[in-house]
Amino acid sequence: MFNTLDDLEPGQRLLVRLDLNAPVEGGTVQDNRRFARHAATLEELLDADHAIAVLAHQGRPGGDTFVSLEQHADILADHLGQDVAFVPDTYGEEALEAITALEAGDVLVLENVRMCDDELPEADPEEKASTEFVSTLAPSFDAYVNDAYSAAHRAHASLVGFPLVMDAYAGRVMETEYTANSAIQERSFDGPVTMVLGGTKAEDLIPVIERVDDTVDRFCLGGIVGELFLRAAGHDVGYDVDGTAFFDHQWADHQETIESVLAAYGDRLHLAADLAYADDDGERAELPVEEISKETSFLDIGTDSAAAYADLVRESDAVFVKGALGVFEDERFADGTVDVLRAVAETDCFSVVGGGDTSRAIPIYGLDEADFSHVSVAGGAYVAALTGDTLVAIDVLSES
Prior knowledge:
Layout: E1 13-17, E2 24-25, E3 28-29, H1 33-47, E4 51-55, H2 70-80, E5 85-86, H3 93-100, E6 107-109, H4 125-129, H5 132-137, E7 143-146, H6 157-160, E8 168-170, H7 172-181, H8 183-186, E9 193-197, H9 202-211, E10 218-221, H10 223-232, H11 248-265, E11 269-270, E12 274-278, E13 284-288, E14 300-301, H12 303-314, E15 318-322, H13 335-346, E16 350-354, H14 356-359, H15 361-364, E17 374-375, H16 380-387, H17 392-399
Parallel strand pairs: 1-4, 1-7, 4-6, 5-6, 7-8, 9-10, 9-15, 10-11, 15-16, 16-17
Antiparallel strand pairs: 2-3, 12-13, 12-14
């Protein structure tokens, strides 16, 4: 498959690609699960007397979250319990001087790779390997480690260029994420396999249903994708009200596919029987879908639906979760997501919870991450793994 840290000789100068992309609130970068996961990889490398320079990205050019990585270095330092240096340069003279000065046990964060013209857009790995960015930086290191699984579906220079010109290894996050998330394609299970699909991006999830039909026995739908399938089933939901912009454009773009998937997999698609909303007093209220005339936003699946989904989970040999079933950040509308996650945690099954947003519900509501086989920090890469799509950064690591 690919080389891992088990194959890496100690005491080297390493270029390590992490995914530290994080929320930014009021100009302040927020700590999240990715920092802790990647810090564990760095700790293992430091224990092996490596000197480390970190490549990472934050936001996209022109976006509100497109900021420097200086704060990321401070957050990493907190997780590692040691100083982490930062240089406001990626492969210029200042960066190269800082890299040359690295000694065993040092960690240096280079500036946001997306501030380099060569990083974006996506292109063939061979083209990215020949960029000035890669050709300038690579000679300063003994080896390259890619731990950025959540970005592994992107053909950006820092992800696919270096493995073609230097020894390359998968970090622990890359290794464990790939192994767990590809299980649906590579493992066989003795009992029923259940997939829980929710969140806001129906267009990402519809192909999942079609691509894993040989492996998954039943799908439990909630969130935006759930409402769109309820609309296809003839219920008065699945369109925008109150100024929202979640449903109508996705319905216009994917109506035919949604209707054809419902017709083809109807007996395996479990749709919500009731939905929850905020009443005039701001309290949680619920209605059976047969009685709904949509005049307000629905923010969770109902109690009966959550119980039915939880029952399906409890009789499963494997459960894969992608996306929340409601607005779990609001405690009033967390029941669907939390009840299903709690059922997964209590069931002796192979389980993967995917997507950074959904996984946040685990600590928020007092669940134990250890009760799940794997909690993924990936979004797009997790969807790609579920459908069996190529992850280009994995491919180049394997070639290396």
